[in-house]
Amino acid sequence: MKKVVVLLFALAGMVLAQTTVRLSGFGGDNVPVVNGLLNEIVNPKLAKDGIKAVYEPVEGDYTKAILNALSAGTAPDLFYVDIFWAESAFASGRVEPLDSYFTKQELSAFLPNLMQAFTYKGKVYGIPKDFNTLALQYNKDLFDEAKVAYPNQADTWESFEAKIKAVQEKLGDVAGFCVVPDFARFGAFAYGTGWRPFDSQGKTVLDANFKRAFEWYTGLAKRGAAKPAQDLGEGWTGGCLGGEKAATALEGAWIGGFLRDKAPNMRFGTTFVPLDPQSKKRGNFTFTVSWSLYTGSKNKSAAVKVLKAITSPEAQQWVLERGLALPSRSALANNPIFQRSGKDAELNRTVFLGSTALGGAVLPYKFAAYGGDWLTIINEALSAVITGQKNVDQALADAQARFDKLTGK
Amino acid sequence: MPAAASTRLAPGERYLARRRWARVGWIYGSLLLVGLLFIGPFFISLTASLKDNPLEWPFRFQFPQVSPRNWSAAWRLGIQGANDPWLGGWTYGSQIGFEVAYFVPRGTEPTPPQITIPRRKPGAGQGAVIDRPYAADYSEASMPQEIERKPFVYKGESGQLVRYRFQVAYARELPNPEPPEAALKHVSKPRIDRLPADLESPRGQIFISATLDPNRLERRGRVASWDNLTPGYLGYTFRNYVRVFTESRSLETGRSLFLSWTLNTFYFAFVRVLLTLLFASMAGYALARLYLPGKQWVFLLILFGMMVPAQVTFISNYLVLKDGIFGFTNLFGVSTLLGSISGLILVGAIGIDKVFIMKQFFESIPRELEEAALIDGASTSTTFFRIILPLATPALGALTILTFQGAWNEFFWALVILSTGPQNAYSLPLGLYSFRNAYGQVGDWGLILAGSFLSMVPIIILFAVFQRYFVESVSFSGLKG
User: Fold this and answer.
1) What pLDDT band is residue B326 in, cutting at 50, 70 and 90?
2) To the nearest whole angstrom, how far is the Cα of B332 from the nearest Cα of chain A?
3) Considering the domain boundaries, does residue A191 fall inside one?
4) CATH T-level topology, domain B257-479
5) B429-432: which pairs have CB atoms within 8 A and are 24 or more residues apart?
6) Cα nearest neighbour of A61 on chain B
7) Largest CB tally within 10 Å, which of A10, A57, B88, B355?
8) Could you tell me the pTM of the whole model?
9) Does A257 contact B437 at a Cβ distance shorter than 8 Å?
């Protein structure tokens, strides 16, 4: 009798006890999105298991906050890992490999490019939450007015340059493109040539392919096809497009929300990044964030359930329907939402397909464990040439010398 | 007169007079300059917060939101749209009339513009996540009718000015989407916040004017676009300020987040001020006047406490809050003080520097007053509350303003304690920070500027009311050397 009572109590305790799984990520508009997901999809689904997921956003410097929390042992069960600093987080040993929690089949449902990005030393450390790539947006009105054909996916650097040059010449008050000294944009062209940020020994070598892309990109303004973004009073190519200061922009799906506010009536189209005329290939980045599991988590099995629910097809459908982010599951490529007509659907479709074979050489936006130190070198070289402080050879020689110091000669 | 006066002065006196005036000129000139230096950026950002595009360059001081013609139009349209001249809106049965004028160059036959009521959603922030009723689903717009044609010259080109008129009506009702069982019985005709409109004209026809100036001209002038045709006066002129309140709402309760943040901050500042006034004055009095063995050591300890940088105690304070003061708060059913205003109130509830200010002040009060009270039979607490505290009003005023200002602007601890909690428990500075994260990424700075200005208002009022004490507080804090 006593045993039965104890058992009953234990059962009641199990039913009543609620496991709280803490999730952490960016603040700002991630707060309503993740909370919406939790309230509408994840928590109703897991209520029967007595699991409740709670989102604890970090307003401010998320990277710093999460790295601190990981080393202090106060990290939440699940958290965002940005691809940019993923490697240093995975190397710390504070992020749990997920291979034992997921079947191979479950993992293969996600876009291979993204899974690759979160694989470190053969193990999967994160499930991609969503992603972005770069695509070329163009203002149809400006091309119509200049009587120039729209850019399309067969364009090479040369044919693309001819088109935007014609627009800039005919309209006078509009630039063809606005050039930013940022590897996050220029890199797409460099990857198209076959150049890779690190060679097999992990060193950065600015070879002839890199130089070809560098010369073309930094020379756009001089050849009258573009203007530096700074001269147009903008900091990014999307700002130039939105203000009708430039006819094209090279951005990801994030430009959609910006244009909805800034220029809701703009007739814009989206196509892929132009091809390298020599290699006939294009390049691209994947910008992505994963959900990862903390090794010190006290309720890993509950956390994995939440992780599966928040990256489930239903959850990604929910996010996609609201136009908030692109899904990381390959099956959603055939989603009717992508096939809709209209400029936003075209933008999302092109950015999504940018991560597949159509995108060409697609590399994750990460630079080993060097991060910003590595980027600064190229960005400063770009800036020096665009503003005319150095010529191409000098800038590349200086950059190579700095890379030799950073990555070893 | 001055000329006549100066002729009568001796040369030496004239020189002195000139010097005197030069001095006055210098002093007032530099004061004005300093004033301008402080007010200038203030004024510019206030102006920018009213604009559709706060980053607009070159900066204009003349823009639609400051034109009285638009004010009266917005007022009128607000009445027509929802019988609300201040905030406007769009309610069932309303109808508005609207006029636009286009310039048509000679030799071109005027074509009436195309009107559309778009389904428009904000690009960022919560508006982008939450679906609200769209005016597009409920409204009908009439074809623009030509009402006037007259010769006109635009930038040296002659042609004609064609004026059109159209109506938009809230004429449709929709089946109520929820609850489903009542769908057939009920129709939905909600009050809609805004009625956006786009007016597209063929290339070559140039938009000249409208009943209400559009928020932006797009597609190289071909489309005139309004965010709201029925804004009301505040909704038009102070659009960003209204958006601050209406656009971000709690997901659970639907209450305006900005309002919650303001109330939270008021509550926090109020409690913090009360606690500080009470405890700092009691502690200050005890240290200044009461007989306490080892008083000097306590005082030394306090001085020492002032010298420890906040960064040193930060982590231990955080851990104490995290566990709810060693589990003490579990008695009240709360397991942690993180994520709630109570945690924020507890951290640094009584500032050591405030105790110091009060102690210094009490020492300046003549001892004879207390002795007189003692002779009359007053106890220590009566003396303190009836004699000393009323005498300390100036110091208390200074303490109030210093504490209130500190609490109102408290950012660091708010970030540490509240940012893990629900969004509607944020304080104002933290809320504004989250605005920056949410809206800054799409360049929507107007809303952030407006929010910051609103958050300054209570402090400005406080300074205006208590400025005498504030000046005195500076002289007190000067005492501590």
Assistant:
1) confident
2) 19
3) yes
4) MetI-like fold (1.10.3720)
5) B429/B265, B429/B455, B430/A59, B430/B261, B431/B257, B431/B258, B431/B261
6) B437
7) B88
8) 0.82
9) no
